[in-house]
Every structure is written in C-alpha cells, then in structure tokens.
Specification:
Blueprint lengths: L26 H28 L30 H27 L12 H28 L9 H34 L35 H24 L45 E5 L2 E6 L1 H6 L2 E9 L5 E10 H8 L4 E8 L8 E5 H5 L4 E6 L2 E2 L9 E3 L12 E8 L1
Parallel strand pairs: 1-10
Antiparallel strand pairs: 1-2, 3-4, 4-7, 5-6, 5-10, 7-8, 7-9
The structure holds the ligand Nc1nc2c(c(=O)[nH]1)N[C@H]1C(S)=C(S)[C@@H](COP(=O)(O)O)O[C@H]1N2 and molybdenum atom.
The site of molybdenum atom (MO) has 6 residues, from loops.
Length: 429
C-alpha cells in the first residue's frame, strides 16, 4: 500500500531489534521446533476428534453442550471393540498434548521478537499474517492450557471445559493451516541453508548466531555470545517433552509403568483390596444420601415413558450373571483395567420387555452434575460384555466405585460408566 506509510513505534525497550540478543534464535530454530511440534499436534487433534465422537453427543442425554446436541459431525456410532479403544485414543490425546507443551513454549520463545516487530504493521498481507498469528498463539495456548488444567481436575474458569476446548480447537486449526501455508517456504529455505540437523553438531564454542534469511525473521540484529549450544537447548526441551510424555504414559498404561506417573494427578484417591484402583469422584463428594444406597435401593427399569420393573440388589445377584475384564478409560488420560461382574445390559432390556432398544439412558442417584446421566447406543446395549456391574474383582463394589451398581461397557468413555445407578430407560426404535 504505497499511499500508506507504515507507522513506526519509537524504538524503545523490546521494540528495538537490538533488545533481543540470543544467538540461538532464527528461522532454523523456529523451523526445527515446528517440525517436532507438528506430528504431536496432528496426533493430538485426530485423537481429540475421536474422543469427541466417543461421547456420542447425538444421543439423548450426552449433550455436553447444554441441552443442544453437539456437532453431528461424525454420523457413526462409537464401537465397542476393541475394548481398549477409548483408553488408547484418549491416552494418546493426553500424552501428545502434554509432550507438545514444552516444545510449544520453546517455539514461542524462539519467535518472541516477532511480537515486538517495528513497525507493527507493514502491509495488508503482514496485518493478516499477524492476525492469524494472534489466533494461533492464543488458540494453541488456550487448548493446551485448558487441557492441562482439566487433567488436574481444576476448573478455575467460569466456562464449561468441553465446549470451550472443542470450539477453541477450530480457531487453533484454522490459524495453524494459514500459518503453515505462510511459513512453509521459509522453513524450506532455513533447512536448505543450515541442513535439518547440522546445527546440532556444534558445541558451545562453535555456536554461531543464525544467519538471517530475509529482513524480518527472529534472528538477532546484534547477537550476544552464546551461553548454551543449540543441541543443549534442544536437548533440554526434548528431555522436558519426553519426561512429561512418560509421566502421562504411566497413568495411561498403568501396571508397572504407573510409577512413571509420580507427578501426575493420580494420587487423588484409591480404594483398598479388590477396589484398589483410582476413584474419580468419591461417594462423599456427590451428595447422595446414605439410605438411598441401603437395603431399600431398587433398580427401576423403564421402557420409554413406562415404568416396567423394579429389582433389589439381591434379585439382581440371583439373575443370570456375566463377567468381563474391561478398562475404564478416563477423559483425563488415566485408565485402569479390572474384572467386573454383574448383569448384562441386554438381559435387563429383555427383562423390561424392550424390543431392539436403540438407546439406553442411565440415570444415577446423584442429584446433580453433568455425570448423573449418560445415553448408550444400540451396539453398546447389545454387547455381551456390557454390564450393570455389582462386583469388581470378586468383591462388592465399594461406595466410591458406584455401589450398589454401575455401568461398564467395552470402549465406553469412563465418564459414561455411570456409578450409583438408580434407573435405566430403554428406548425402542
Ligand atoms: N454418577 C457418577 N458416575 C460417574 C462419575 C461421576 O462423577 N458420577 N464419574 C465418571 C468418570 S469421569 C469416570 S472416569 C469413572 C471413574 O470410575 P471410578 O471412580 O470407579 O474409577 O466413573 C464415571 N462415573
Ligand atoms: Mo473421567
């Protein structure tokens, strides 16, 4: 725009190019970190959408978007096989997101001089580039920060996590697409000039400031002497990424690897004996009155609007039982596999006289909260391993694990494995 002279801010503080002096900064460093980041972000995004599909938001009560249904993006019902599908999907989502975080922070450090570019806007194209960068930086920090805060079960913000994290992803992906398209040529040139790995060979004494490729990169105008080599810096970032990734892996895989999860938020509470596995929400925290789960507890089966059958726990225990070894895979990335026994959901449907049920709404005794209801699809109802569990590892469920009865279904997200079940409503086609 020749008729508009770009506005320069006085060259003070960080607006002076000479303010940013690290000799490590430059297009190669930015490109190298991006190349490490992209595959992790691809895995994280793909598994994130799969996880969303696993919620089956099109079904009745799974409306995590208030009373509206979520995007009907997928058009398929979440499968029941393999049983570990959700645990693996969500585990990869959390592992890749956690491992990406130190690399993203390093990448932001590498390019931060660009935030203070002077003049701030040189042309229309430059303005668009900067706008997309704002959305990219904001979007990526937002999705990673909300994700990390969520796996700590900490909700300091006033919005609900799932829709915010989900819609934030679209902003982030759109900006990322634009950014990759803008910067791919620069990345090519940076790698052509420096090699992809060559700068990693230099020790501290050999570390030279990165040559600038064009006028406006993050390379310093007046570089200071290096205090760390490029491989030292990349090594530290890589170690942080691997270390955090291993910790997240520990709580996904469990078994002997669970010791890797020493700083992960898994110590919140466990049962003892056969019930010794993680408790996400304790009985005490959800506000169910003790007598409601005492001898007077009844499971009420409905078909549509009709109340059909009431069963005591003793009656359920006398029914034709089944046993299944199944994982609970939590959206927070941890999972745990246990041996459950109880009554098949299909058996309960037959008992209630539901023909070919297409949906099952499971209602908890829990008075409030988004976990108190979940809707299962036809395949989930019909699977022979889908249980209303009464026992785990041969012992009665503990109160914390959902006594008198809880749902357990292969490949179902943990959040839909409703505890303290009070009623089930089958819907026919
Ligand atoms: N009624 C009810 N059921 C619930 C929950 C809850 O808060 N209330 N939490 C769910 C979540 S998020 C998970 S991961 C599993 C955890 O089961 P556990 O505590 O037995 O390990 O239970 C699910 N069932
Ligand atoms: Mo969960």
């Amino acid at each position: 725009m020749p008729f508009l002279r770009p506005l320069r801010i006085p060259d003070v503080g960080p607006f002076r190019r000479e303010f940013w002096r690290s000799p490590l900064r430059g297009p190669w460093l930015a490109s190298f970190l991006s190349s490490a980041l992209l595959p992790l972000l691809a895995i994280c995004t793909l598994t994130g959408f799969l996880s969303h599909a696993a919620y089956d938001t099109d079904l009745g009560r799974n409306a995590i978007f208030g009373d509206r249904h979520g995007f009907g993006l997928y058009g398929f019902d979440w499968p029941t096989s393999p049983a570990w599908l959700y645990a693996a999907t969500q585990g990869l989502h959390v592992i890749s997101g956690v491992a990406a975080t130190p690399i993203l922070l390093a990448k932001l450090w590498a390019v931060i001089p660009k935030l203070w570019e002077n003049p701030p806007v040189r042309s229309l194209a430059h303005a668009l580039d900067r706008l997309s960068l704002t959305l990219l930086v904001g979007g990526s920090l937002f999705v990673l920060a909300t994700g990390i805060i969520n796996i700590q079960l900490w909700y300091p913000f006033g919005f609900s996590f799932v829709p915010a994290h989900y819609y934030g992803t679209f902003v982030f992906l759109a900006a990322l697409g634009a950014h990759v398209a803008f910067k791919l040529p620069l990345m090519r040139r940076a790698f052509a000039k420096n090699g992809v790995f060559r700068p990693l060979r230099d020790d501290l004494a050999q570390t030279e400031p990165e040559p600038d490729l064009e006028e406006h990169t993050s390379a310093p105008a007046s570089p200071a002497l290096p205090t760390v080599s490029r491989r030292g810096m990349i090594g530290a970032v890589g170690a942080a990424s691997l270390g955090l990734g291993a910790m997240a892996t520990g709580q996904v895989v469990g078994g002997p690897l669970k010791h890797l999860a020493f700083l992960a938020p898994r110590g919140r509470g466990r049962g003892s004996g056969p019930n010794d596995f993680p408790v996400n929400k304790t009985f005490a925290s959800v506000g169910i009155k003790r007598p409601m789960v005492g001898p007077d507890w009844r499971l009420v089966l409905h078909v549509g609007d009709e109340r059909r059958v009431e069963l005591s726990r003793a009656e359920l225990l006398e029914m034709n039982g089944a046993m299944a070894e199944l994982p609970i895979g939590c959206v927070e990335g941890w999972s745990t596999t246990q041996v459950w026994s109880g009554v098949r959901l299909g058996e309960l449907a037959r008992l209630a006289g539901a023909n070919d049920p297409v949906e099952l709404e499971v209602r908890s005794l829990q008075p409030r909260g988004s976990f108190s209801k979940a809707t299962l699809n036809a395949g989930q109802i019909a699977h022979p391993d889908s249980l209303l569990a009464l026992k785990v590892n041969g012992a009665d469920l503990s109160l914390d694990h959902g006594f008198p009865a809880r749902v357990i279904v292969p490949a179902l997200p943990g959040v839909h494995c409703t505890k303290w079940v009070g009623a089930m409503v089958f819907r026919e086609a």
